Each structure stands twice: as C-alpha cells, then as structure tokens.
Amino acid sequence: MTIDGGLAPATSLRDSTSTDLAMMRAALALARRGLGTTWPNPSVGCVIVNNGHVVGRGWTGRGGRPHGEREALRRAGAAAQGATAYVTLEPCSHWGQTPPCADALIAAGLRRVIVALEDPDARVAGSGIEGLRKAGLAVERGLCAAEAAELNAGFLQRVRLGRPLVTLKLATSLDGRIATASGESRWITGSAARERAHLLRATHDAILVGTETVLADDPQLTCRLPGLAGRSPLRVVLDRQLRIPPSARLLADARQVPTWIVTLGSSDPARQELFRKAGIEVIAAEPDAAGLIDLSSALGLLGDRGLTRLLVEGGGRLAAALLRADLVDRLVWFHAPLLLGSDGIPAVAGLDPNGLAGMPRFEQLATEFVGEDVMTAFRARHPAEGGRPEQR
Known about the structure:
Blueprint: E1 2-3, E2 11-12, H1 18-32, E3 45-50, E4 53-59, H2 68-76, E5 84-87, H3 101-107, E6 112-115, H4 127-134, E7 138-141, H5 145-151, H6 153-161, E8 165-172, E9 177-179, H7 191-202, E10 206-210, H8 211-217, E11 234-238, H9 249-252, E12 259-264, H10 269-277, E13 281-285, H11 295-304, E14 309-312, H12 316-324, E15 330-335, E16 345-346, E17 362-370, E18 373-380
Parallel strand pairs: 5-6, 6-7, 8-14, 8-15, 10-11, 10-14, 11-12, 12-13
Antiparallel strand pairs: 1-2, 3-4, 3-5, 9-16, 15-18, 17-18
Helix pairs in contact: 3-4
C-alpha cells in the first residue's frame, strides 16, 4: 500500500513516522465514538498536532454535525496555524448544512494533512484532497486505510450499493441452538455477553427483527447499559401483514425511541394508520416471488433513508432469508459453553444451498472471551470478493 501523492510524488508508507501512525490511530479511536449516531454521515475522527503536541481533537457529532475536522479546529484555535491534521476520511469539499471542511482546514493555516481514506461520495471523491493541495498544503493519503475502511464500512456501502451494512448477531449454544425444543431461551449466554450485545446496539444506526420475534419475545430493542440509554438505535420491524399487536412494547414507546415498520403496500390500510398514530413510520416494500417482503428492496429503502449500519437480531428464519439473499456482511456470534441437542431451535433455518459451493462463507476477523462465552466476528465473502457464487 502506498500514500498516493496525486499532484506530488507518491510517498511510501514506510516513510511515515511512528508519530504519524500513532496519531492516525488516535483519530480512528475518536471516529469509533460516533458509530451509530452520525447517520446518514460517516463518523470521522480528526487529530491536530503542532510541534509534537496534540492541540485539537474532534469526531463527528450526533446526526453528522459538527464534522470531526471542524470540532478539532474549534478546540485547536490559533494553535492550528502550521499544524498537521490527521483525518480518517477525506475532508468534504461541498456545501451541505455546513461549509466545506477542506476550506476550513485551509483557512486555519495548516501545513500538512494526512488522510486515511478517500471519500467515495460523488460530491467529494478526491476533490477535497485536490483543493487542499492546490492551496499549498502537503497532503498524504492511505495511512491506516484498511482500518478506516472497516470502521466506516456502513457509510461506504450505502454510497456504493445503496443499502446499509448488515451485521447478523447470533447468541447460541455450542451446537448453534437459540432455544430448547420448548422455546426456553433466557438466558443461554451470560450477563457479560448480554452487555456486549447492548454495546453492539449502541454502535449501530438501527436494529432489525421480524414479526415472529416481536410476537414471541415482545422485546424493547433498546440499549440498557448505564449511561448509554441515549444511544439506543432506531428500531425496524419486518411485518408484511402488520400482525404486531397494539400492546407490543415497541408501540408503547415509539414516540421516545424511533420505530419503523416495513410492510407490504397491500397490508391493511387501517392497521397502517393505527401504527402511524402510535408514532411509527410505516414503509411499504415490494413483495418477492413468494409474496414475502423482498429483502433487497427493503434494505434499499432503509439506505434511501440514510441508514448505514444495521444490526439484525431476528430469529432463525430471518437470518436464513438474509443469508440466502447474500445480504449479510458481518456476523457476530456469541457461543455459550453448553449444548442443547438436535431438538433445540437452530439459530439459522434451512438454507437449501446447492452443495458446499453455494453455502455462505465468512472470514474470521476477531475472537474474544466475554465472561464465560466466546464472541467471534466474521466478514462475509461475497461473490465479487471470491466468496460463494451468485444465487439469484
């Protein structure tokens, strides 16, 4: 990997100093703080350094404002003159709700800007970097690019594919069961794993379940960690026939925790109006060949509304449907140290793959002990990335 010099000669990453690497990693850590709160914008971190001292730090605010660069400049003040800025995503170069961040960096008198990743948004796409260089700033690109791309994979995917990054969360026994044959499921994993699952909710824009999960569990789908109640994600339910009862907890507090229901346009208009009066946004999706909600269409509708990171906590049928449609991008699996046997309810319903070649495939990203349980994160190997062939 190289730092693309663009109008100037390219510089090898080997020429980057240990300080550059440490400061960019600090900027990435700042950007992680905003995950789940900045949509439809990316979460960007910025560190400003002058004479070896950090003089400004910032990350994207709730709802995308202020941008990380502007917050870092505000904190740096006059100390930004002649400084170096480390930014996890290319500074914007277009007017939106705020003026371009590239212009703000120029006006502050910075000497050098190191950018981890180019912004694929057509309104930016290299123009922010070009503007900085034309103004005389030294700009380097590519330091920690892989880490920056993974951090903002949701934003990048929404820009490129029009849908959010889908993370499927499973909590099972060692043999992949989510409940006993009688339906008993509380609690398979321990308290530490359940707390980590709530932290996952806090770092995603929205959480998705199906009708059966709501009917069986009557969940709240909120983040209930101390101090993080305000980080509860938007709640999305797939309910093609609007079978959720008016007594469901999702309806009771829909005015406090934003809730969307994705249904078919042919569902009962009176039921749709009932949900709207409860403060729920009703979204009409297209049916698939079987008369079910077309999942690709539904995810596109969520992307159109700005969602970038979607956590799926539905049951085995929803998990299987998303996997069959090749719509799962990340998998977070909590394994508890117990066995439930073949009569237990599986985490993933039947996939009907065409042999091994048709099975969903993943590469392992990380494994961590969480209390007595084990949490493993995976990234999907989609067909274009050398994964399973297209199943259309």
